[in-house]
Design brief:
44% of the residues are buried. This protein is an all-alpha fold. The chain starts with a helix and ends in a 24-residue tail after the last helix. Helix content is 73%, strand content 0%.
């Protein structure tokens, strides 16, 4: 027992096993990329996996919960503004880092990272640890994911132009068929399949993660075959990490202090900070495979790095927030969703 304790990692340093699996998938694609017929098979499987992912997203999203969350509309508008307005503006500003810090391809991936919707699971988890407004975090993440299915591709078409495939009829058709149609089908069938999904949550979680690993393998295989990885030097990678650290720091500060200026209480500010400063790897990877095609590998690299960075930093912040003294009654805004996190089951 004592040996296990000595080998345990610090609680504030989350080592995400899934990130290790993603790294392993990238290494596999580098050593054994899919070529020829294998590439065609992997591409077809990846397309099906993306459709399955968005079908499951639609089937899991409770429309009733989303509508109930509208009662706290100021909080959700704040999170949406951070996710789809402030983040994209900072992404556009990163164009000034080309060519000194980032290559045009890495900057396109950095900008795409800024267009992706927020997370759901990790936002809820960190909000709960920090004793924040968990119901608000649930609804904010759901709204962001739902909005991102439509808004992320449109923003990518507008801001990335030809780099992201443009807003051609072909790219629009791919977005509709691979993302929107499966999501709407999941919403329509939710009343019949929702119970099954709830009962088999763990198994379907493996399906989710396996599908994303397949998308990553296909994207990075295409990148290896095309030879685009020769463009990423250690110096460029270091510049990318530095730029992402600044981006995360700015958003964490803005969501916390900006929410206070807007009059939100402590619990709501915690939900806004965690939901408004993070980006979803699960939603971003499939979208990138549709929008970028053969260039998806460089496009998703910034998102993969940012994902792990946000987990580590937000874990530290959540732990520190959990040690804050209990707020006085007048410090909360008393909104319809302002409940103590301890009253919400995980």
């Amino acid at each position: 027992m004592s040996r296990r304790r000595t080998l345990a990692l610090p609680s504030w340093l989350p080592v995400d096993a899934y990130i290790l699996a993603l790294i392993g998938t990238v290494v596999l694609a580098a050593l054994l990329p899919a070529r020829g017929t294998a590439a065609d098979v992997a591409g077809g499987a990846s397309t099906g996996a993306v459709a399955l992912l968005f079908f499951l997203y639609g089937a899991r999203l409770s429309t009733a919960e989303a509508l109930d969350g509208l009662k706290h509309w100021r909080l959700h508008l704040t999170v949406l503004a951070c996710t789809f307005l402030v983040f994209p503006l900072l992404g556009l500003a990163s164009g000034g880092l080309v060519p000194y810090v980032l290559t045009p391809e890495l900057q396109a991936g950095f900008l795409f990272l800024c267009l992706v919707p927020s997370t759901i699971q990790s936002s809820i988890a960190f909000t709960s640890i920090a004793r924040g407004n968990v119901p608000a975090a649930i609804c904010a993440g759901s709204f962001s994911s739902l909005t991102g299915i439509l808004l992320t591709p449109l923003l990518a078409a507008l801001l990335l132009g030809s780099t992201g495939g443009g807003f051609s009829a072909d790219s629009l058709l791919k977005i509709v068929l691979q993302l929107l149609v499966p999501f709407l089908a999941g919403q329509f069938l939710r009343r019949w399949v929702g119970g099954f999904l709830t009962r088999h949550k763990k198994v379907l979680g493996l399906v989710d993660r396996g599908s994303i690993l397949l998308v990553v393998y296909t994207a990075f295989s295409e990148g290896m075959v095309a030879g685009i990885w020769h463009q990423v030097t250690p110096a460029r990678l270091g510049g990318l990490l530095a730029a992402e650290a600044v981006l995360l720091a700015v958003m964490l500060a803005l969501t916390w202090y900006g929410a206070r200026r807007l009059g939100f209480g402590r619990e709501d500010r915690i939900a806004i900070q965690f939901a408004g400063s993070k980006k979803s790897l699960a939603a971003g990877l499939p979208m990138a495979s549709v929008l970028f095609g053969a260039h998806a590998s460089l496009a998703v690299l910034p998102l993969m790095l940012f994902h792990q960075m946000q987990l580590m930093v937000c874990a530290v912040i959540a732990k520190r927030r959990s040690r804050d003294p209990e707020p006085e009654p007048d410090e909360t805004d008393g909104g319809p969703l302002s409940h103590p996190a301890a009253t919400v089951s995980s």
